[in-house]
Each structure stands twice: as structure tokens, then as C-alpha cells.
Amino acid sequence: MTSAHPPARPVTGDPSVARPVLDAADVGRALTRIAHEIVERNHGAGDVVVLGIPTRGVSLARRVGARIDTIEAAGPTPVGSVDATMYRDDLRLRGVRALESTDIPPDGIDGKVVVLVDDVLFSGRTVRAALDALSDLGRPRAVQLAVLVDRGHRELPIRADYVGKNIPTSLTETVHVLLDETDGRDAVLLGPADLSRGETR
Amino acid sequence: MTHPQTALPQHLLSAADLTRDAALLVLDTAEELARVADRPIKKLPTLRGRTVVNLFFEDSTRTRTSFEVAAKRLSADVINFSAKGSSVSKGESLKDTALTLEAMGADAVVCRHGASGAPHRLANWIRGSVVNAGDGTHEHPTQALLDAYTMRSRLGRIEALRVAIVGDVLHSRVARSNVLLLSTLGAEVTVVAPPTLLPVGVEHWPCAVSYDLDGVLPKSDVVMMLRVQRERMYGGFFPTTREYSRRYGLDARRMATLPDDAIVMHPGPMNRGVEIAAEVADSVRSTIVEQVANGVSVRMAVLYLLLGGGLVEATEVAA
Fold it and tell me: Can you name the residues that pair with B164 across neighbouring β-strands?
């Protein structure tokens, strides 16, 4: 499941078995490209609000926001976070989780173009929950989705507008996104199934 | 927030059931949920299709309403059941009432009862979660949680706070739950009361005991005033109300002896002029109105953490 991670959960997959698919420079280039694509698609960044889905989506959203600011001189791009936990459809299956913070920039999201950012797009259920959360927070003019990794296996009719890297995976493999803010380095690792975690993402 | 593995027990019957991690999980969750009150749509879909029964055998305005608002903000269905006008007045026992509610599919029962221990009995009879909303002179855990939440939001911490709980400790479930929870969370609690209003065995509570309010106030970050519960008093506990108020009431003169950033709390309902002077209750130090607002957030957190995960085993048993 995408982004089904409490903060700073240690990566329990054996790193010697996990295979790097993106290194720090690749992650940086992917985010720069995504920032350019956001500006291009929206003819500037005037109405853009970048909202990350916790935990790693928030770090990515901050980076994308900062990169947009270097491209467009229109002033700082509003960046925030939207926690979808209370809107998830698997709470009953997996048990309750601690909530993450939802930070909507002071000007709100009404009439804006919201770019949702997450680390891994997998089943699409997290994004579905985040869309529901957004609709309770305001009415954006449009919502777009940016992800660092699209690993396939969608269970809902959802697709990303901006993709850092498409990584074809099998359902038993795990995708670990490591980011400097939470994990001390930038990388994307593809590992074999980690049964001890009881979930894949 | 870093408590992914912490979970609440199935029922919330006593503040003593909460470990430090579980209590902090409730407070952190409440902090996030408090922001729902500032949104245009003050509702979350999380408990859609769940039923919460408010089973109140004693009068209550703020606690019952608070639980009702909390459950509704999480989209649960709420059934209010009060002893007056129900079959209880026809002599139905607690157990039969519980079995009736169980048959109606209650996922959680929020229970207030005049008898200490009633929610514990209830927890043995029904499959859903039981939340103690005050039982006799025993406990009121969600009040303690909202008080702890209020302290943390006003003063930034609970650890090492000096808290004085003043007044009718003998009849106060609020005092008992607060002493247990606050000591779990690392506060230094002192109960202050005349000897007649202290329960037997208070020396075994995890707190200090004093009879001298004036001595304690200058060394307190939080003063929690308790209501004098006349409805539970069947004897002479103090000579006159005026005498009580003079020795143990919080007036402006006493409030002035508190440290600069100290706060004054009261679980409500207040007897203005008895345990707390009107000018104190309305002062900037008073958190009484905040406590009510915080109560909704804390109860949302408790209901979410108890019910949000679903009772997988219970449904399997029922099937």
C-alpha cells in the first residue's frame, strides 16, 4: 500500500538484498523534472498548492515546492500536508493508526490547483482517501497527483499526472523510498518480499 | 508522533488502564482531531456505520453532550439512553439493559452510573467497547485525559508540572482519575482537602497530601478546583459552606499567590462562590471553557482509537 508508513519506521528489509533503482542524484533529477512539468502544465505556478501525504510525501512536497520557486519568481509556492488516515478504507482490517498532521496553507485550497505528492503509487487507495480528505477541506479548481515511484498494481481508477520513475514490480516485492529528511539519505530500493512487515508498498 | 505500536485496551474503564504511551497517543490524536473543529466541514467519515450508545444513569450535560458531539463528528450513529423515561424506571436491571443494547448492535457503550464499578460489570456482559463516563465516586478517565490535554496545550508539558487538586477529593471521581493519569504522565500531584473530605487510603495514592491550601498554592503550576458534591454527602463534612469557602475556596487573593503562568481548572459544574470565586472562574488563568472544547477532541480520539480499528474477533464471534 502506498505511503502506509508511520513516521520514521525503520526499513526492516535486508538492504544487502534490496536493489537500488534510484540513487540520490536520480531522485533529485526526477523531482526537478516534476517541478518543471507542474509549471508547464499549469502555465506558471500562480494557483498551485503542493500538499504532501505523510510521511515521505510531505518531504517530497517541500522539495518540489522549493524547486518550483527557483523556476517561477511568483513568490513562495504554498506547501502543506494532508493526512488521509481518517478516510482510509482499511482501518477495520489493519487497526487504528496514529494520526499525522494536516497543514493547509493559510490561503486555503478553494479555487487552487492542488498537487498531491506521495512517495509510492501502488493500489491507489491512499490517494483515494486523500481525495476524500481534500473535499472536506475545500474545493480546489483541480487536483493533480505527483509520485516519485509508480510501481503499478492499481486497485482503483487512479493515475498520476507526474511520475518520477515507473518501476514494474511483482506484488511480492517491496519498494523502499529513503529520504534524507527521514532516513538520512536519498534512494529508492527494490527488495524481495519482506514477510516480517506483513505489508508491501 | 512516534507510537505506531501503541494501542488502547478494549475498554476505557480506569485511568490506570492507560500506559504512558497509550495516554500520549490519545493526547496526540486529540491534537490532530481538534483541528476538525476549525474546518468548514466538521465531520470525518471514520466511524460511519458504527453505533455509540450513551447510557447515562446520572444527570449530566457536558459529558453526555461532549460524547455525542464527538461521536457525531466521526460519523457514528448515536443513541442517547437515560435512566429517566426508560425501562430502568420500571425496574430493569443493568444487565438486562446491557443485553438489550448489545442486541441492538452497540459498538461502544459510554456509561455513567451512580454506582462505582458499574462500567466494569457492563464490560463483562457486552462485546463492544465500554467507556466509563463517570461511575459513582470512583473514576472518570476521559475527564482526566481532557484535563491533561488542557495542561499540555496551555503549559506545553505535563512532565514535572506541579498540580494541586483541591476540595472534595472524597467524592470526586475526577480527582482519582487525574491523580492516576497525571502520575503516569510524570506530574507531581498534591491533593489538598480538609481531612474529612479525603478518602480512606489516600496515603497509598501516587500523590502528596496536604490540608493547607495557602502553603501549596505558591508552589503550583496548575490548581484544579473540585466541586463540593452535596448530592453525595450524607453527613457533616465541614461546619458551614462559608467556613469551607474561607479555608479551601479559591478567591482573587489566593489566586494572586500563584506563580505567574499558573492556570486554574475546574471540571464543572461550578459552585461559584463556594469552591471558586466568580472573578477567578472568569479570569485569564481559568481554562474552564477550554476544558469543555478540549473534551470533544479528547473523546473523539478515544472513540477513534477504541472503534476505528474494528473488532474483528467480535464480528467473527457474532457470525
Answer: B190, B223
